[in-house]
What we know:
Blueprint: H1 2-10, H2 24-37, E1 40-52, E2 57-69, E3 73-80, E4 84-89, E5 92-96, E6 102-106, H3 117-121
Antiparallel strand pairs: 1-2, 2-3, 3-4, 4-5, 5-6
Amino acid sequence: MRLAAAIFSLIPLVPGLSQTDRDALRLLREVNATARTVKSWRAEGVEVNLSTTVQKEVRRESHFVIAAQHPLKMRQEHTGDEHTLAVCDGAEVFYWGGGTNFYRSAATVEKGCGFSLTDFYQLEESPA
Length: 128
């Protein structure tokens, strides 16, 4: 589902792309190349997780807002069944996981501060 959203949201960014091109692999490669050059972006959405057992079905819904600016600036908030907040200001990262669960440390890519558009859409190096 994320890949489909990536294709539809990035198609306007790919020059010379038309609806008559039926080569999906070429489209994915062009979208991937464009996503790698984007330095700042914002996304909003709803993530739905369904778990089914013999006795019942559990539906968890989380609304999210993500804004990122390269390098190491990012804000990500989830609300709904799960409430979390992560903020990177370029030097530090602050994470709050609801209640009293929080931490603060130096901002690094490994701590989630280098949140690129290709990471968000989980685009592969060479989609095939």
